[in-house]
């Protein structure tokens, strides 16, 4: 499987060098400096543009990462540029190409075209490459000017993995020429092998079942790496679209980069999939990982964030062996960002767009703008969040509806399908520090893809957890920390706790319940237990019957919550039964497309326990007054002006 390619970007002219890396300066005769660059999880983010919000952004875009690539190539004579997967799907440009334009013969996918412009040397498949089906994947890869490798996606299994027929070549060996410290040129053979989480068979079952199979990552590596070595690979670089996880190795594990690094013969690991940065604090304390030096089991490794936010870089000082091959004498690892964020959260870009990349996708960018501005469905009720913190709310309802729809499909045919399915969702745009205009407000009628940004601000991915009825109650008790304790009979008491973040106010759909505001909160604003005997959540029922504390439920949520974000009972990472490959935003878009017309009116599955003679106050956006009559189960009236442009409202409990 030896593929000879051009030396594009590998052996640069000496006249283009500007600030040499210390390895390049230090290299002597028989020593050479090799730079390996990684992009990962680009998700079609060619340009620094947020298509959901319909505005530019400075935290993403291969057009920006391209500037870092240029710098690295200028700093050394020998470099390779590799992609670690998840490039075909992940933003509206990807959806536009897949669902609208398609891949007619002779056309190029915009992310592939941009990668061609930058002269990538190779890449691997990520799990999201399979989201649009194998036919689309094949068409999108057809114009790639570089090899795509993956060793563990198989169309026909052999007796051992190295006898498999793989969907794309399992590996490639690049025959190149490398310049040593004396200026002499030598041959070098760089082997590249790719891997993807075997969970693709769950996440994209409808696209893959009966067409391909997935091997365990480590099993495939143990079989194929010796073959690469036997073919004369001097170095083996693993393109591991798999994360870094310190748990003991188990066959079929999703994030297998740590045990993969233990496979003999692998010299360098490029990792991804988790949308994190390595080296760096994201992986401090993980067994076998040095988060400062950038090593996994002692081998250099890197993870370059996501959406082009970083460029991963592994610098190698190579030495000629007595047998005429090469060994790693020293290395350095870093993840270079395209922006800086200060303590106040302000973003400062560190690079500008590369004009050749912008030009490569200019037409598709304009077509995508028209696509996101075009309606994808309709809503027969307004989508607003003015009362999301005090009553059941349509903007939260649509998120719950979409999550329930998606997880129901994903769990169909699994042992979990028989369990009751609930959905937890929180309001994101609900005033507060965002100001009096920081609310969702989509009128009845057309819904465009960019409106989804109003419904779901963050690029979370969907998760499902299995918890008990007792944990459902405590989950809601944690959410009820949003409210101050209210004295029965008191007038105009402040309802909302200003220290409680709106994204931690989860509403659980699929059950009914009421909140007793006369009780103290069981948890404080940070999720710490402060009143173990408190019971704000009362009349908690499922299907009209009181919830059995021992009964098991599936709760659809997001990765932040399921993995412990917000410190919710039952959500600490240990209860996850499904990890979806899709963002919650994408799920909402798909749900709207599927439904055609959505009916997001709140179903009033929760409310407050009546407290006769008691009133409370809360602040919202001035436009909330237009929807006072639509709030289910509450008597609300204007109560004058609030601070900083907010309007104040009174609830009679």
TrEMBL record:
GO BP of this protein: nucleotide catabolic process
Catalytic activity: a nucleoside 2',3'-cyclic phosphate + H2O = a nucleoside 3'-phosphate + H(+); a ribonucleoside 3'-phosphate + H2O = a ribonucleoside + phosphate
Source organism (scientific name): Rubellimicrobium roseum
Co-factor(s): a divalent metal cation
One Gene Ontology MF term: metal ion binding
Keyword annotations: Hydrolase, Metal-binding, Multifunctional enzyme, Nucleotide-binding, Signal
Annotated localization: Cell envelope
Name of the protein: Bifunctional 2',3'-cyclic-nucleotide 2'-phosphodiesterase/3'-nucleotidase
Domain of life: Bacteria
GO CC field: outer membrane-bounded periplasmic space
Family as reported in the entry's similarity comment: Belongs to the 5'-nucleotidase family.
Pfam family, one: Metallophos
Domain 5'-Nucleotidase C-terminal, residue spans: 439-569
Gene3D superfamilies: 3.60.21.10, 5'-Nucleotidase, C-terminal domain (3.90.780.10)
Domain Calcineurin-like phosphoesterase: 34-275
Primary location group: other
């Amino acid at each position: 499987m030896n593929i000879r390619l051009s030396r594009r970007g590998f052996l640069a002219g000496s006249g283009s060098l500007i600030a040499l890396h210390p390895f390049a300066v230090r290299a002597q005769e028989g020593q050479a400096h090799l730079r390996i660059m990684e992009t990962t999880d680009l998700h079609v983010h060619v340009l620094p543009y947020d298509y959901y919000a319909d505005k530019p952004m400075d935290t993403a875009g291969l057009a920006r990462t391209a500037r870092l690539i240029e710098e690295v190539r200028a700093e050394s004579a020998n470099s390779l540029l590799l992609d670690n997967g998840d490039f075909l799907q992940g933003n509206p440009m990807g959806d536009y190409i897949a669902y609208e334009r398609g891949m007619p013969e002779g056309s190029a996918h915009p992310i592939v075209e941009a990668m061609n412009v930058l002269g990538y040397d190779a890449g691997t498949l990520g799990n999201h490459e399979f989201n649009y089906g194998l036919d689309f994947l094949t068409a999108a890869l057809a114009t790639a000017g570089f090899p795509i490798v993956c060793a563990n996606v198989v169309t026909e299994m052999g007796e051992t993995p190295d006898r498999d027929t793989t969907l794309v070549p399992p590996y490639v060996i690049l025959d190149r020429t490398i310049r040593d410290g004396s200026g002499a040129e030598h041959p070098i053979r760089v082997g590249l092998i790719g891997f993807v989480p075997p969970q693709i068979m769950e996440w994209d079952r409808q696209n893959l079942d009966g067409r391909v199979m997935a091997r365990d990552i480590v099993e495939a590596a143990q079989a194929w790496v010796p073959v690469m070595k036997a073919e004369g690979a001097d170095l083996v670089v693993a393109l591991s679209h798999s994360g870094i996880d310190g748990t003991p190795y188990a066959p079929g594990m999703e994030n297998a980069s740590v045990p993969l690094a233990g496979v003999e013969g692998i010299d360098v690991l490029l990792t991804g999939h988790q949308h994190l940065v390595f080296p760096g604090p994201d992986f401090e304390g993980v067994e076998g990982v040095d988060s400062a030096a950038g090593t996994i089991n002692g081998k250099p490794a890197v993870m370059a964030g996501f959406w082009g936010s970083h460029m991963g870089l592994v610098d190698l000082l190579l030495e000629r062996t007595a047998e005429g091959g090469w060994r790693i004498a020293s290395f350095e690892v870093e993840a270079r960002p395209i922006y800086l964020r200060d303590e106040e959260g302000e973003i400062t870009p560190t690079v500008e767009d590369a004009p050749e990349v912008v030009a490569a996708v200019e037409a598709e960018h304009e077509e995508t703008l028209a696509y996101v501005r075009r309606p994808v469905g309709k809503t027969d009720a307004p989508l607003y969040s003015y009362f999301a913190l005090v009553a059941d709310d349509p903007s939260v309802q649509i998120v719950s509806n979409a999550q329930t729809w998606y997880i129901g499909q994903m769990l169909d045919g699994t042992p979990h399908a028989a369990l009751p399915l609930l959905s937890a969702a929180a309001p994101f745009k609900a005033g507060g520090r965002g100001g009096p205009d920081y609310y969702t407000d989509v009128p009845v009628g057309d819904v465009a893809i960019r409106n989804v940004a109003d419904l779901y601000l963050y690029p979370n991915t969907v998760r499902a957890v299995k918890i008990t009825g007792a944990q459902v109650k405590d989950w809601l008790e944690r959410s009820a920390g949003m409210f101050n304790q209210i004295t029965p009979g008191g007038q105009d008491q402040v309802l909302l706790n200003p220290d409680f973040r709106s994204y931690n106010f989860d509403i659980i759909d699929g059950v009914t319940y009421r909140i007793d505001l006369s009780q103290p909160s069981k948890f404080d604003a940070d999720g710490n237990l402060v009143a173990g005997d408190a019971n704000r959540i009362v009349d908690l029922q499922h299907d009209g019957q009181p919830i059995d504390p021992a009964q098991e439920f599936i709760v659809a949520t997001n990765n932040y919550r399921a993995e412990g974000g917000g410190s919710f009972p039952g959500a600490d990472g240990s209860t996850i039964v499904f990890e979806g490959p899709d963002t919650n935003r994408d799920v909402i878009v798909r749900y709207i497309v599927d439904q055609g017309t959505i009916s997001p009116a709140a179903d009033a599955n929760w409310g407050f326990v009546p407290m006769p003679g008691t009133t409370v106050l809360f602040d919202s956006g001035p436009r909330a007054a237009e929807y006072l009559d639509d709030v289910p189960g509450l008597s609300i009236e204007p109560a004058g002006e609030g601070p900083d442009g907010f309007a104040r409202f009174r609830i009679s409990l």
